[in-house]
Description:
Helix content: 40-55%
Order of helices and strands: HHHHEEHHEEHHEEHEEH
Structural class: alpha+beta
Strand order of the largest sheet: 1-2
Shape: globular
Amino acid sequence: MNSVSRPDLAGTAALLANETRASIMMSLLDGRAWTPTELADALTIARPTATEQLHRLVGAGMLTEVRQGRHRYVRLASPAVADLVESLAAFSQKSEPAAATLRSQRADKALREARTCYRHLAGRLGVALTDGMHRLGYLHPTWTLSAAGHAWFETLEVDLPMSSSRAFTRPCLDWTERRDHLAGTAAEALLATFIRRQWLVHLGSARALRLTPEGSLALDPLLEIPCSQNSSQNGAPPSSSA
Length: 242
């Protein structure tokens, strides 16, 4: 018997140790709400299996349910849950390789190139953009937005949050690049602006994003190097299991 009360860390770890539940949580890092059927199809698992695992995740407070008419959706319960999952992914000492099929390899390449990390930009593009912001003085070494950074956000008409209990800007370790990209509410507003301007577009229903020619032109001063996405316009919609 414990001499003092303590959180059930082992129980939480066991919840995410299941391969199916872990895959569900990684898929939901796109920040959107999914139906159980969509998740089952994306992960190529049986619908009853998906439903069973979703019940466990909802019951543990990891996911929340949203009902709209006859449809039931699930999504991550909070940004804190997203941070937990992404942190565990970055802490992993190895990555499960993608299947050897052409479709899977192309999907994996697209996901590593640019993807949503809950509601902000990750992948090679996210790291390159963050490097550019540091290089141009938009971000201080302390990861706070500089006066020049605020001015840049204003020129893009980014709708920055007035106040929030969450961090405005912070580093987030990218699990594919093993380097930091920009996170926080400012980064979420920036990604929303890029998508609204169609500088970034979703590839299918998965987390992967593609930088458009317009986006490449607009962000070229920050990126310095061309993104390989621009030379790959015919990629198949990736799966969301990576």
